[in-house]
Amino acid sequence: MIVHHSILVNSLINSHGPDHFQKIVLEADPNEYSGFLMTVSNRLDVHRESCSTWESMLTLYTNQQNISLACTNYLAHYFSSPLEISLLPSILGDLSDYITIVVTSIRLGCTNYHPHFRQCANTPRFCISRQLFCDGYDNCGLNSDETDCSNRLDQIAVTIIDGRGDWSLVVVAAFFAILILLLLFILYNYRMAKARRKFLRTRKRHSSYYGSSIRRFEADVKESEETVALLALGLRKMFPLMPAETANSRQPQIIPTTTDSGFWLSYECWTRLCGCLYELRHSSHYGSSIRRFESDVKESEETVALLAPAETEDEH
């Protein structure tokens, strides 16, 4: 049986048991206590004759030292843990009203303001639980824990907040704080990497789109330049330069204004050229416009070639 604070051995005696001897084994928590303090109070009249008669029957047989109760009225003894007690239950059970046996867990050494333990007044080396003071039982020996119980303020447990306390809590808190910071750092890096990948994908998509658009624009510009060159060539062939005015000729050149066939054919060619320019301006397919323009230029050249002999004859 593990004794956390204190135990009354009288309550463990089974006087009606079948065994001649009863064995009781007590253990203390090794993390809190060092051993036990046994106090025995005998209220029987002790005489020399009765001492020799009752000595064998009123003896506690322990694994460390045997204690005779017949020849003493009071006894206090310290035992290490574990403690084994063998007794006669038939005798001690009937004498429970006169003999009281208390076993208390003892801690060797404690501070004056320990939150759970308090020093015994008669033996400061012995420390017992604060709950055992003024409980009606002798736990420190000589009833020192039962004196001065009128002032109950002495029994209030005081908790001291000390920075030099248990470091395990500080270590655990620091570990969890570092773990949380590490998780936040990993999450931040993951989100940044995800955003960076998204940005690179978007930039690549836009660059491919605008690159193809630029290439198409350059091709359109090139086609437009070719179209302008063809237009210039056609105009140069359709409208040859007028002969310049010489120094000897003082009379201005007279441009015929009559409605001859050459003038109307030139006007018809000019109208076709204007139509081609309009189609080139409003058409989205430059290739088809260029082909139509080339066919019109060819047709105009043939017309000019046919009209050239007739104009020569008219001049003669």
From TrEMBL:
Disulfide bond entries: C134-C149
CDD domains hit by this protein: LDLa
Keywords carried by this UniProt record: Disulfide bond, Membrane, Transmembrane, Transmembrane helix
Record-linked PROSITE patterns: LDLRA_2
Gene3D superfamilies according to UniProt: Low-density Lipoprotein Receptor
Transmembrane segments: 167-188
One Pfam entry name: Ldl_recept_a
Chain segments annotated as coiled-coil in the UniProt record: none
Top-level taxonomic group: Eukaryota
Protein name: CUB domain-containing protein
Protein's organism: Steinernema hermaphroditum
